[in-house]
Amino acid sequence: GIQKHQCDLSSVTSDTREWYYARVRASSVPSSSKSAWAMSRRFSPRWDTKISPPAVKLSSSKQGIVVQVKPPRVLVRKTHISVDYNIYVIHASGKEEVYKFAYCSHKLTLTELKPKTHYCIQAQTVIPRHTRSSDRSSAKCITTV
User: Which residues belong to any copy of the Interferon/interleukin receptor domain (predicted)?
Assistant: First the structure.
């Protein structure tokens, strides 16, 4: 009964210790004709789930730039005990600095930045236990106070 080219299987593949297969077939409602079943390769929610970058919210204060992160999808939060983040600070010159911090923090204050200077920030989700990481988030930019 799915009429899209993709579907989210997380509700039926929630045991991250298990391996799964999916099967699908096409059907035509008016004529009731159906294709043969097609079987997926074997997959694991723990190893095959695409990890998303975190959502990032920035604010500027006298102390510096406050970076708040919201973890990606619930599955990643439930599946992996240890979730860390890489925060990339991109200076106007193009120079990059990387800050690492753990999920439990939710917030990182970047200090020792030049006042009235434009910085762009990107974040990346890291699952250290499985040496996996997401792509970087899109850049968000802010000017220091």
Answer: 49-144
